[in-house]
């Protein structure tokens, strides 16, 4: 049985990046606030074009 990969909208990614900035770069706190894994947030932060 395989896991289904979650996909996030561009708007979600932009808002998440803004939230990371508001949290002074604290990725783990932002991930907790968004209810996603910290690793997911790091990948999106690295690939986001804001």
Automatic annotation (TrEMBL):
GO terms for biological process: DNA transposition. Gene3D superfamilies: Homeodomain-like. It comes from the Bacteria. GO terms for molecular function: sequence-specific DNA binding; transposase activity. Pfam families: HTH_Tnp_1. This is Transposase. It comes from Acinetobacter bohemicus.
């Amino acid at each position: 049985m395989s896991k289904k990969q979650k996909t996030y909208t561009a708007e979600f990614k932009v808002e998440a990046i803004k939230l990371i900035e508001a949290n002074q770069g604290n990725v783990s706190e932002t991930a907790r606030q968004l209810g996603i894994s910290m690793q997911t947030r790091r990948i999106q932060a690295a690939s986001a074009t804001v």
